[in-house]
Amino acid sequence: MKEGQFVGYFKMKEQRKIPLTHIMIIGAFIFAFLQVVLLASLVHAVNVNNEIQEGLFQSGRIMVESLQHILSVQTGIN
User: Fold this and answer.
1) TM segments (predicted)?
2) What is the C-alpha to C-alpha distance for residues 36 and 38, in angstroms, rounded to an integer?
3) How far, in Å, CA of 17 to CA of 25, rounded?
4) What is the DSSP letter of 10?
């Protein structure tokens, strides 16, 4: 290969562009990955919310039982 041919070959390699379909496929994979991450965040948030509600329910139940006990002791009713 002569010197001029090598430079021409190198310029052809530099000018080669990524096809639009490859860019769209890469974009679709990135979009799908972000959807999975967002779905995982949503599931985690719902689980945390359910745990908070369960904790509030348990503490409310304990409070009601304590209040019933206090009232039964004060009134003498079991």
Assistant:
1) 20-43
2) 5
3) 15
4) H
CB 38 within 8 A of CB 44: no
Task: Please tell me the distance from the alpha carbon of residue 59 to that of residue 78, in angstroms, as a whole number.
Answer: 22
What confidence score (pLDDT) does residue 73 get?
87
Q: What secondary structure does DSSP assign to 31-70, as a single string?
A: HHHHHHHHHHHHHHHHHHHHHHHHHHHHHHHHHHHHHHHH
> Could you identify the residue written with the tokens 């509030």?
56
Q: What is the pLDDT along the chain (78 residues), one digit of tens a residue?
A: 555 555 555 555 556 788 999 999 999 999 999 999 999 999 999 999 999 999 999 999 999 999 999 998 888 775
Give the separation between CA 23 and CA 73, rounded to whole angstroms.
75
**Ranges of each domain in the chain:** 19-75
